[in-house]
């Protein structure tokens, strides 16, 4: 290795990633974090100790060979670095941007014990972005051709979020034809309709999808599972296996008076209008939202943060985020909270809505808020918010965005007799294989676990794909020789 | 996979158009009461339109739309042979159709007559005695009259100006019919919100089951956004997956009417921009 002793390397500060100025970016939809230059990437790669037993790897849900790809970055072999990433992660450009690295890979990095961890996510993003439009087939399969070796087989994936995309990519790389059925007109799931442009440019997702098309995956947008085609019909029409990755998109509301007033949106509606419908370019595009000078967002997760930062960019004078507990309990990523505050977000902790009040035209004008305090810890281990009786106040707002969670959409389970679900509608699937109560029908991602993360959905898609490939091709053929590093047994 | 327009018919020039579209996968599944969501161009809005007819053998569906604003006007620039960029369906719960003990009265107003036509046909095929009541401002605006007459034993007509049938509103004819005939099993109403509301109010004293089809603003159409939510019997329901048909006696029509105005100002701007950039061909 290099002349630097490990202890010295670790002392070098973490290489900062350039960001747009908060004042400027709070009003545009361009990406907030600008990405590393090659120099920065080299400097950051040099901080990695190349651990023999890398702790970081255990922190990554798909166990990317992190020292392996960082070593290639240091050697400036971007193709090789990308190949390492793609061996276990089919969407590195996405994960490098949206993974909660602080609790995953970087949270486990040894360098982080005494200082700041190696910026694994930023390096991953750098590699994926640099790789750009090269032949995906070549890198993923290790061979130039990705001939449809097994055109006697076919697999259907319903939904096109990270779980389905991963499942499809894995199978296609092993020569199994895959058709992805997506209800919306665009492919990518939450990556295109939920997570905003300024955090994950749609072009990045599109590029990953193009790479899958190059592998031979067929995409059918505007096909609704359970409506246009049902799971039993797919099996009858000759699909050997079906993977259900429809996410958990059913929005929850607060169940308080006035919730159906104009101006009260679910975060899903608001974000879908802006991201999928590109309402931020209205009227050049057709899907509208409306301007509001004061917006109040309810919730404390990534979704609430995305909605709040989106409202800022659409010109709100003031955006407040109301949360029942305190900042400590907020489930969003720290980086998001930090970015949002820099951009001017007001945080109203220990506040819950009681009622929405409208004007004579049915448009929201005020919100009655209840002050809360923290009580005893509840089942989640977090302190339960308790109302401070009689302590209420009234906010003025033309828009309220409700981001208090989502549930399982019943379209698939209602139309698939014999498909077992939990009480709240999530699909029962085997932990190891993702197989459901119906043979050859698999499920994974948010529709099984409830709202989780991109990378955990991908892990589920990968596990299911592996089980499907083993069943269809036999265990040996499911794992092509070059897909995993030689010393690796811990495949996801 | 874009869907091709096979035939286009201007039912009321500059106002209402019928399209027959090649969409075998939708036609195979479409039932009365279902709708589709479509987009006209790359940055177009998703809008819902009822499936006015479906022919599974030919693999086609029929849509009838009223030109209301940007998207419907843009759609109207397409001709036979052109493709609709995105077409998704069939969505929504189909109408509950089974053999009824008495007649069913299907009431349609304006463009709603087209949507009602598919439901009336469904009831007819189920062996029910179908009475249709259609209304419009004047005779030229009455849609699907011949089609309805071809299978309905009774087609009652009202126009506001008296140019055809009874002068007045569909509710006048409905109340008369309900007063004369106590055996009516169900009333189905599709049309503008004020009309459906009036029908629901008119049938209430008779205690007749009344089904209305709600046209709330939609985005995804598969239950993921809540844009389409309506209050029915005091509960929030999603029109796209729980409906679009609901018990008219339980619907909060005032709330629905208000929510339909959510984006009025933006819709106006959008339509005006569009008119500036497109030469109007409506009256061609
Ligand atoms: C606003 C927002 C921000 C987030 N930010 C982060 C983040 O920063 N980091 C992170 O790790 N995670 C984040 N998440 C969570 C993450 O996006 C999800 O956990 C992940 O996308 C789940 O993937 P999935 O494959 O299960 O399904 P989804 O991504 O939910 O995709 C499901 C797809 O299935 C389609 N579908 C639904 N029903 C049907 C049907 N009947 N037929 C056909 N298609 C159907 C949907 O239209 C959708 O495209 C965020 C989520 C949201 C909403
Ligand atoms: C289930 C359902 C079935 C429908 N079937 C028909 C039909 O068969 N024929 C027909 O002519 N119309 C139908 N409509 C109404 C039709 O969707 C609207 O007229 C259309 O969206 C108007 O779009 P626009 O851009 O031309 O006009 P805009 O100027 O955008 O809107 C005009 C009015 O249409 C309504 N509207 C706007 N956007 C939407 C939207 N995304 N979804 C629903 N309503 C909207 C609003 O009330 C608005 O004020 C149906 C609506 C629903 C919900
Ligand atoms: S996939 Fe996510 S958790 Fe794994 S290394 Fe990349 S950023 Fe870290
Ligand atoms: S734990 Fe940190 S230092 Fe060790 S290999 Fe992983 S990234 Fe490098
Ligand atoms: S249109 Fe989105 S939930 Fe009904």
Structural description of this entry:
The complex is a heterodimer of chains A (492) and B (284). Chain A contains 22 helices and 15 strands. With 492 residues, chain A is an alpha/beta fold. Chain A starts with 5 loop residues before the first helix and ends in a 14-residue tail after the last helix. In chain A, 55% of the residues are buried. By secondary structure, chain B is α/β, with parallel strands linked by helices. In chain B, β3 (35-39) and β4 (47-55) form a beta hairpin. In chain B, α5 packs parallel to α6. Chain B is globular, with a radius of gyration of 18 Å. Chains A and B meet through β5 and α16 of A and β7, β14, α8 and α9 of B. Bound molecules: flavin-adenine dinucleotide (2 copies), iron/sulfur cluster (SF4) (2 copies) and FE2/S2 (inorganic) cluster.
How would you concisely characterize the structure shown here?
The complex is a heterodimer of chains A (492) and B (284). Chain A is α/β, with parallel strands linked by helices and 492 residues long.
């Amino acid at each position: 290795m290099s002349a630097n002793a490990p202890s010295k390397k670790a002392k070098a500060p973490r290489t900062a990633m350039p960001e747009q100025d908060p004042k400027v970016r709070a009003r545009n939809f361009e990406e907030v974090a600008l990405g590393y230059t090659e120099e920065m990437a080299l400097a950051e790669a040099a901080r990695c100790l190349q651990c023999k037993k890398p702790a970081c790897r255990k922190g990554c849900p798909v166990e990317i060979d992190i020292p392996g790809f960082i070593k290639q970055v240091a050697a400036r072999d971007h193709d090789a670095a990308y190949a390492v990433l793609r061996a276990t992660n089919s969407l590195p450009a996405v994960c490098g941007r949206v993974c909660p690295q602080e609790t995953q890979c970087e949270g486990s990095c040894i360098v982080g014990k005494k200082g700041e961890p190696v910026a694994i996510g930023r390096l991953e993003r750098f590699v994926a972005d640099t790789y750009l439009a090269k032949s995906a087939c070549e890198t993923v399969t290790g061979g130039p051709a990705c001939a449809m070796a097994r055109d006697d087989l076919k697999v259907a994936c319903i939904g096109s979020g990270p779980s389905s995309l991963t499942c499809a990519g894995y199978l296609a790389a092993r020569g199994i034809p895959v058709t992805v059925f997506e209800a919306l007109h665009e492919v990518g799931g939450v990556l295109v309709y939920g997570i905003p442009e300024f955090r994950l440019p749609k072009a990045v997702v599109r590029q990953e999808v193009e790479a899958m098309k190059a592998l031979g995956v067929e995409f059918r947008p505007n096909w609704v599972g359970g409506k246009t085609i049902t799971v039993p019909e797919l099996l009858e029409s000759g699909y050997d296996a079906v993977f259900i990755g429809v996410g958990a998109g059913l929005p929850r509301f607060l169940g308080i008076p006035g919730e159906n007033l104009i101006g009260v949106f679910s975060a899903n509606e608001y974000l879908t209008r802006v991201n999928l419908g590109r309402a931020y370019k209205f009227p050049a595009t057709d899907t509208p939202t409306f301007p509001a000078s004061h917006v109040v967002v309810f919730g404390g997760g990534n979704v609430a943060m995305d909605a709040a930062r989106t409202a800022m960019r659409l010109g709100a004078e003031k955006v407040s985020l109301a949360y029942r507990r305190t900042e400590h309990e907020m489930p969003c990523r720290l980086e998001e909270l930090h970015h949002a505050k820099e951009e001017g977000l007001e945080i109203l902790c220990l506040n819950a809505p009681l009622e929405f009040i409208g004007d004579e035209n049915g448009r929201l004008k005020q919100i009655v808020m209840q002050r809360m305090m923290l009580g005893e810890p509840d089942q989640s281990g977090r302190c339960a918010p308790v109302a401070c009786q009689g302590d209420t106040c009234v906010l003025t707002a033309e828009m309220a965005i409700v981001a208090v969670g989502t549930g399982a959409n019943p379209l698939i389970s209602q139309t698939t007799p014999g498909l077992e679900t939990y009480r709240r509608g999530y699909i029962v699937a085997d932990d190891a294989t993702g197989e459901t109560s119906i043979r050859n029908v698999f499920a994974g991602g948010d529709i099984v676990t409830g709202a989780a993360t991109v990378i955990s959905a991908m892990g589920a898609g990968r596990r299911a794909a592996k089980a499907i490939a083993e069943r269809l091709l036999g265990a040996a053929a499911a794992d092509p020789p070059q897909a995993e590093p030689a010393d690796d047994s811990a495949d996801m | 996979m874009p869907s091709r327009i096979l035939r286009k018919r201007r039912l009321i020039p500059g106002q209402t158009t019928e399209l027959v579209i090649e969409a075998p996968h939708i036609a195979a599944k479409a039932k009365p009461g279902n709708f589709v969501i479509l987009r006209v161009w790359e940055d177009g809005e998703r809008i819902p339109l009822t499936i006015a007819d479906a022919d599974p053998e030919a693999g086609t569906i029929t849509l009838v739309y009223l030109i209301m604003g940007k998207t419907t006007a843009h759609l109207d620039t397409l001709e036979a042979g052109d493709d609709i960029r995105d077409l998704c369906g069939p969505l929504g719960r189909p109408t509950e159709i089974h053999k009824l003990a008495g007649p069913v009265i299907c009431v349609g107003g304006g463009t709603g007559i087209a949507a009602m036509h598919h439901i009336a046909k469904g009831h007819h095929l189920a062996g029910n005695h179908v009475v249709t009541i259609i209304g419009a401002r004047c005779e030229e605006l009455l849609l699907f009259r011949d089609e309805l007459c071809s299978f309905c034993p009774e087609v009652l007509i009202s126009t506001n100006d008296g140019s055809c049938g009874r002068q007045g509103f569909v509710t006048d004819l409905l109340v008369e019919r309900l007063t004369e005939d106590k055996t009516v099993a169900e009333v189905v109403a599709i049309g503008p919100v004020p009309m459906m509301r009036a029908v629901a109010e008119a049938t209430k004293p008779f205690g007749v089951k009344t089904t209305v089809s709600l046209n709330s603003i939609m985005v995804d159409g598969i239950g993921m956004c809540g844009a389409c939510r309506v209050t029915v019997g005091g509960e929030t329901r999603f029109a796209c997956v729980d409906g679009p048909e609901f018990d008219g006696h339980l619907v909060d029509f005032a709330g629905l009417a208000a929510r339909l105005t959510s984006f009025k100002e933006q819709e106006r701007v959008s339509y005006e921009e569009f008119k500036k950039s497109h030469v109007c061909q409506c009256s061609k």
